[in-house]
Amino acid sequence: MCAELLSTDSTAGLPAYQQIARHFASEIRRGALRAGARLPAIRSLAAQLGLHRDTVALAYEQLSDQGWVEAQVGRGTFVRAKGLLAATIAEPGAALPGDPGSSVGSVPDGDVELAPQVEELISLGNTRPRYATGEDVVALHKLIPDPRFYPIEDFRACMNDVMTEDGPSLFSYAAPEGDPRLRRALASRFGAQGIAGSAAQLVLCHGASQGISLALRLFLSPGDQVAVEVPTYANVLSACAGLGITAAPVPMDAEGPDPEALDRLLAKPDVKAFYTIPSFHNPLGTSTSLARRRVLLEIARDRAVPIIEDGFEMDLRFRGSEIPSLAALDTSGIVVLLFSFSKSLFPGIRVGSISARGRALEGLVALKHATDLSDALPTQVALARFLESGAYDRHLATIRAMLRARHDAMDQALGDFMPAGTSWTRPEGGYQLWVELPFDLDTRDLLPDAARAGVLFSPGTLFMPDARPSRAMRLTVSCAEEDEIRRGVAALGDVASHSGAALHGTGRAGGMHL
Amino acid sequence: MCAELLSTDSTAGLPAYQQIARHFASEIRRGALRAGARLPAIRSLAAQLGLHRDTVALAYEQLSDQGWVEAQVGRGTFVRAKGLLAATIAEPGAALPGDPGSSVGSVPDGDVELAPQVEELISLGNTRPRYATGEDVVALHKLIPDPRFYPIEDFRACMNDVMTEDGPSLFSYAAPEGDPRLRRALASRFGAQGIAGSAAQLVLCHGASQGISLALRLFLSPGDQVAVEVPTYANVLSACAGLGITAAPVPMDAEGPDPEALDRLLAKPDVKAFYTIPSFHNPLGTSTSLARRRVLLEIARDRAVPIIEDGFEMDLRFRGSEIPSLAALDTSGIVVLLFSFSKSLFPGIRVGSISARGRALEGLVALKHATDLSDALPTQVALARFLESGAYDRHLATIRAMLRARHDAMDQALGDFMPAGTSWTRPEGGYQLWVELPFDLDTRDLLPDAARAGVLFSPGTLFMPDARPSRAMRLTVSCAEEDEIRRGVAALGDVASHSGAALHGTGRAGGMHL
To answer: Read out DSSP for A173-238?
Structure first.
């Protein structure tokens, strides 16, 4: 029931708890669940769906608010009698059951107009697949560091120490640019990677995701265009949609973004920046060559168009030799570098940084202040302490080794199980890689079969600026160990082969003879 | 030297550390500080300026990066010999001394175009006064809860507990709407204040300041207008500028915003929302009457224009009886309510919430996700624990009593020391009040004299959508105890009276006979 529960079209795009609430509301409406019937225990349903118990609790609370069910202390949650339900619904202006986010009490949803960019965002969200990650499903779609590796105890100790030592100053407003200690620690790490710039040029932000929003707003107005790689990070497309910005596609070749295409784009007056992920590209997993990086910088400098470099996995190289970042190669001060701890440590503390110069730096500080004043000091200072203690470097060594082993297992499994003609990338860092099937199909169509077969992936179309169908998919090694990876890819190979066979009468067999 | 150091026009609008760096750079340039001269010790200069030591350290580091000074271990920071300096500066592409945010190494500031809204923000920032809050200055300009009251130990314990108990799930991504526990705790508090709505309708955000940005983006596109009160919260004007939104003024009378003026504005198609602070208005300190609140809701409902209600101090009533919030009175679901812990607890954790319904709720979740994915879970969960423990309510009782005493002292002092004809508001909650002088002057012009006399305030012009001059000023009781308030207002009365005398040959004497 879980898979269908979290993937019904009618609820796609809604928060998980609302999808759950709607599912049960409709089950009750159509009589599948009768008065007095007991809903699954919160704990077991949560485990079944791979969700936090509070999410399910929230869904049940909403159903109760709406009069569908009632909680009986110590016994569980039960479907209410029709009469009771009717009575509840009949209250003046009472919320309609199953209404997304509908209210308790007597207030209807207001009839107000949303900004067109927001309407755009909502419909964009509705096109995203919803995943039900049950216990037994191999999650090759997740780009979240493996929670099994989080150095929580070290971080907890740092947080506890700084809260004990720093006192009130830790709980007041930070400067918009953030805590000087963390900025200095980051600047010296960047310096060691050849990136010139003092702590004064670093603005801390709310993960690289806020960094993307701020960097886009720094250079672009609604109606402007930003050049992006094809494929590119899915959420940068959401950020653009939310800001009324258009993403202009730059094709990728083996070396990185195509220079001619980029130059043609940057020549256009309304293309105001170039967003790129040169190291451990998302979703490709590849890295732009050193020679190509120099060419890209030349083009941007000649066109006087800034480059937004997303270094979200720059600390995660596990093989091969370092390629200097664009920020390190930049001699004209046009690169804005985004950094994040979300993939190299854990995402939950929401800390990232943006490096900029001169007017761009001034604008960034003003923009950060106007957007949310500043970020949370306790987290920043605890993280600075964590870095200074060496715990971050120790952690990096651990997960780099983990990444190497898992990518090797992935490469091996893809060779063993995918259909003949399948191609894939071999990253030297990060979590993600790109797999292209030899069949003319939209991998989005494989998702339901794959989920049933016990494996999940991200269909390539999610990463296309124009949402075009794609025969490729993004896989990650972040939340699956070697044996799980092998099991997941075997299942994926089956599904792909069968679809291939259905299309061309070939497939599995061919796949076996790689 | 501190006051002038942090208020030179040439550095206004720059971060404090850059103002400090620029000050010393120019002192060295003009020979006032010669080679070998020792800069003030970081600790003492920081104390003198009322800044954190790291801010001064950052300034010295920038000066060192730029070749002006060198740190000698254990001895201090010294001005470098001209030769050395020249050599440093002469390096290819070396940063120019005193350049705001200029880089170390060999990278110049890039020549890139910023978005016009960002240029607007920068110039807006440059018009803001810079304050040097030395030890002896009474800070009646600060709207930051008094650090002496922060319940740090209770919060530290909650943070430590949840980090110990919750494990990895606490350090992963939250849902865009935030932690269900904190949302439930907030929803039940709101419910107790008559605000209908379940936890499902609450989206947690990064302080009410991010709430303002998100709520504006939810309803307005660049070029649209938002109706705001005159005067209004200064940072909402920055938020508008950064989003390319125009603030349309609604005059205030004794009851609140003027209904006719509001109706005329909301009739315009490009006025897409009304931003209001009905309780403990910032900067006025007054509250909109119950009758007027109902009228405002009617107008907004008839015009189908949403109301953004800023409840940033709604938990801080210390006198008089509760007036239901617009969200509590709303029967048509058009009110979006902003809440924040920044003033009722402490700002450093950056937690606030937005309540919305239906499509607005859906849009809000999509917008939050596209902006920064989600907020930090550890802080949200620790805060939920803090609320459940009763520590928040205990804290509210303490600071409400503190606010009552300080406002009484303020009211008394204003009567004793301000010139005849001065009028001021008598808030029933919150930190701020509004003082209007009987003279035809711009209170901005009083600031330097006031700073010299040992008191700081916020000139009224800061809160005017059109930045028009104002004879009023905002005072706060947040960071001054009763005796400090009395001392500060006495000094303020002197300064005001002398300016009044200069203008009209009246003043102090009259002020004494109130």
So the answer is: PPPTT--HHHHHHHHHHHHHTT----GGGEEEESHHHHHHHHHHHHH--TT-EEEEEES--HHHHH
